[in-house]
Structure formats: structure tokens, C-alpha cells
TrEMBL record:
Transmembrane segments: none
Pfam annotation, one family: Cytochrom_C
Keyword list, A-Z: Electron transport, Heme, Iron, Metal-binding, Signal, Transport
Record keyword Signal present: yes
Domain of life: Bacteria
Organism encoding this protein: Sphingomonas jatrophae
Protein name: Cytochrome c
KW Signal (keyword) present: yes
Positions of the Cytochrome c domain: 23-122
Molecular function via GO: electron transfer activity; heme binding; metal ion binding
Signal peptide: 1-21
UniProt xrefs under InterPro entries: Cyt_c-like_dom, Cyt_c-like_dom_sf, Cyt_c_1A/1B
Amino acid sequence: MKVFGLALGLAAVALPTMASAQGDPARGKTVFARCMACHQTVAGRNGLGPTMAGVVGRKAGTVPGYNYSAALKKSGLVWSPAALDSYLLKPAAKVPGTKMIFPGLPKPEDRANIIAYLTTLK
């Protein structure tokens, strides 16, 4: 019985985390407003940062016409949801030497929502 109770307790803790990992694109678009000072969402339009159109699944440092830091070009990252999540938590910690001065998003739900939104950008 104790094992069953422990399993239920662990499931109760894990389920909200698993649900939040899915993210909400509409909420992500709202959170992404913080990023729009530097990043565009239209393919071929770079700002202070590279366009986010098509970012999910793209190799880091490869948007044509954007001058990336050597650190990001050499990072070997591919922008999977997991890589985006760890980068958006603390960009400078994930890729020391990155040009991105944004301090990061500490809330897991904000990161999950932005990643869900970024997934919609083609």
C-alpha cells in the first residue's frame, strides 16, 4: 500500500511538469513579446538577433545574413525543444561567449510556451 501511495504522489508531482512541457503557443506569443526588440518572426528578416522563423530543428548559427558570435557558430547545437529550453534558461551559461545579452527565462512554463510558439513559425 505504501508503494501505491508513493506512486500516486510521484504521479501528482510529475503530471503538471509533463503537461507544462507541452506549452501553449498563444501564451508563448505573449511571452515572446519580450524578445521582439531583437528577434523577428518572418523568414529572411533579421533584427539585432536572427529571425526566429524556422528556428526549431535548425542548426545554431546558420541563418543567412546574420553575424553570429564565434561561440554560437561553434556550439554544435541544433535547436531542438530541449536545446532551446536550456538555452532560454540562461543563454550565456549554455553558450559562453554568445552575443545574446538576454538574462534568460527562469519559469519553465514561459520557456515551454515560447518553444511551443516558436514551433509554429515556419
